[in-house]
């Protein structure tokens, strides 16, 4: 976890919860590239919206609880992740390897 901030409605400025800024530490997905190149999302920034105020220590390893990911954008290249909560992992557990996290993926319709 690299930061935390308020999640606010753009128009009303009502606080909806927290945005926990995270970095993808490990990416076990096999991506198939047409040109044969290798890619990964490891070390990409990933904000997670949580519908309540949360307190998470900086530099801690976290995993989202009941996450739903929505793909959007003109090229379907944007991702919004919302979760019920954030679980702080024990300090001796550097990744969520023991507990695979697969968010439910929702395709946004226009």
Element layout with pairings:
Blueprint: E1 3-8, E2 15-23, E3 45-50, E4 62-65, E5 68-72, E6 78-83, E7 85-88, E8 104-107
Verbal overview:
The chain has one domain (3-29, 36-107). The N and C termini lie far apart (32 Å). Helix content is 0%, strand content 40%. The protein has no helices and 8 strands. The strands form 2 sheets. Strands 1-2-3-6-5-8 form a 6-stranded mixed sheet, with no helix packed on it. A two-stranded antiparallel ribbon has the order 4-7. With 110 residues, the chain is an all-beta fold.
Number of structural units classed as domains: 1
Order of strands in the sheet with the most strands?
1-2-3-6-5-8
- Please provide the count of β strands: 8
Q: List low-confidence stretches.
A: none
Mean pLDDT equals: 85
Element order: H for helix, E for strand: EEEEEEEE
Helix content range: under 10%
Number of helices: 0
Global shape: globular
In percent, how much strand structure appears in the residues? 35-45%
Q: Taking Cα atoms only, what radius of gyration do you get, to the nearest Å?
A: 15 Å
Structural class determined from secondary elements: mainly beta
Measured distance between first and last alpha carbons: 32 Å
Largest sheet: 6 strands, mixed
């Amino acid at each position: 976890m690299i930061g935390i901030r308020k999640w606010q409605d753009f128009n009303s400025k009502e606080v909806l919860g927290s945005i926990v800024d995270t970095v993808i530490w490990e990416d076990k997905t096999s991506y198939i590239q047409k040109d044969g190149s290798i890619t990964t999302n490891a070390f990409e920034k990933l904000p997670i919206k949580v519908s309540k105020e949360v307190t998470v220590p900086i530099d801690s390893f976290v995993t989202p609880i009941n996450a739903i990911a929505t793909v959007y954008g003109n090229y379907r290249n944007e991702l919004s992740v919302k979760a019920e909560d954030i679980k702080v992992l024990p300090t001796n557990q550097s990744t969520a390897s023991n507990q695979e996290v697969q968010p439910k993926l929702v395709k946004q319709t226009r």
